[in-house]
Amino acid sequence: MESPSWLLLSAALLASLAFLSVIFIRRRGKQLKFPPGPKPWPIIGNLNLIGSLPHQSLHKLSQRYGPLMQLKFGSYPVLVASSSEMAKEFLKSHDQIFATRPPHAAGKYVMYNYSDVLWAPYGPHWRQGRKIYLNELFSSKRLESFEYIRVEEMRAFVSRLYGLSGKPVVLIEQLSRLTLSNISRMVLGNKYFGVSGDDQVVSNSIVSLQELQEMINEFFFLTGVFNIGDWIPGLDFLDLQGYVKRMKALKKKLDRFQDHVFDEHEQKKKESSKDFVARDMVDLLLQLADDPDLDVKLTYDALRGLTLDLISGGTDSTAVTVEWVISELIKQPQLITQATQELDRVIGRERLVEERDIPQLPYLDAIMKETMRKHPVAPLLAPHMAMEDCKVAGYDIRKGTRVFINTWGIGRDPSLWEQPEEFRPERFLGRNIDVKGRSFELLPFSAGRRMCPAYNLGLKMIQLSIANLLQTFNWKLPDNAKGQDLNMEEAPGITAPRKFPLVAVMEPRLPLHLYEI
Ligand code: HEM
């Protein structure tokens, strides 16, 4: 517990900082020169303010103040780009200049001093990490080799849900378990977490499912949090909000987990010596660490940093997207009918949908894209930072400027989308808009050098989950509630999950033997 005097001191310090920032804005306001047209809006902005501002409010601000909004706090200007043209400027035309991340405490204290890829600055370590991801871990061949894991986990998931049919279910809990199981097996080779009351015994579990989920949640909270020390140089040692303390505590827990995983993998590698065959991503990383030709040595910290990227990157993003899909569809049952008609026509009712069927399901693809338009998991992507002074679309932007791409706002731009507030998958049918970084009006995985390197895995997991959920169950709200009564608020933050988890009731719609594992 923090003492009241400490809180008072922090409040006083914050107030004086806010005052100083206003002065700072006035004095330095001319540094970013804007051409004629709507002027930027100089508010005292920061990541936390942007994060805690409901996305709707930020969208309204950008509609009023233009597609490039300037916010300022402390020493660093912050830009919010809210049009597809502006996104293209930053992520394509000037991609290289904005391909770094701002430094922040979580990168230092949790990510082994920026030894991961997500928060690493542009440079040799980041370049090599990305190369490993793209060529080794997320290549089509590698992902195919893990397909059996995704199939087994999907079967187990459908079977678990079958056991819950007819009862109200908190869907996100089930989805998180599915994605965490998938990711853990692909990355770590095993689950390493136990589930209480579960028949499935995980011999080498070191944490419970809940503990692992809590670590990941804490990780996301701390990497997105506004930590004063990151914005006012010189104040980092004070840790006014206690976040650095929490980061260090989280790192200890993560270390314990990761050390256990790496010890086991090292041991197996030693035992099999020359016959060693990499079975999971950690094995692959360990093999690469022995490669004398690597440009940058893969230290133990780098191994742990990359592994942390892999575990944290895919878990929430996938589960949150699928929860939004079902939430939107349950409000409009006629869309579910359309999707199941397509599934029945293409696959029939005698087998479960598989990854190879996905290209034959255009309506399902349209549902996914419409969800990503309306509910992008990362509404502001991850922060980018200018590595040098530059000119973008006529604006002078100085080195160190933080840039957020407002994909949430772009997804609601009325010049791009007719009636953007409506959920209408049809808008994507017959249109050549993809989610792979080529269409700047739809950027769930971003674009350019910093684009999500695992987008193909993310897509596979999302598409297969939606297809299976719709093929195997009928969906309704508990207590015969009507679709229009479902609350669709988002939780504010750097990710955009539902504010209130979806509770739904499922009934099986296929022959019962298909629900057996
Ligand atoms: C629904 C699924 C996913 C979505 C929507 C998503 C979205 C994103 C976004 C928006 C970024 C930031 C791009 C930028 O800064 O411009 C990103 C980066 C990243 N994602 Fe994903 N992601 C997903 C799945 C995954 C998975 C499954 C993994 C790993 C297992 C992963 C690992 C990463 C990593 C390592 C980066 C950092 C790239 C860099 O900074 O160079 N993501 N992702």
Could you walk me through the main structural features you see in this protein, from its secondary elements to its overall organization?
The chain contains 18 helices and 12 strands. 49% of the residues lie in helices and 8% in strands. By secondary structure, the chain is an alpha/beta fold. The strands form 4 sheets. It has a 5-stranded mixed beta sheet. A 3-stranded antiparallel beta sheet has the order 4-12-11. α8 packs antiparallel against α9, α9 packs antiparallel against α14 and α14 crosses α16. A hairpin with a 2-residue loop joins β2 and β3. About 6% of the residues have low confidence. Protoporphyrin IX containing FE (HEM) binds next to α14 and α18. Protoporphyrin IX containing FE binds next to α14 and α18. InterPro entries: Cyt_P450, Cyt_P450_CS, Cyt_P450_E_grp-I, Cyt_P450_sf. Keywords: Heme, Iron, Membrane, Metal-binding, Monooxygenase, Oxidoreductase, Transmembrane, Transmembrane helix. It comes from Hibiscus sabdariffa.
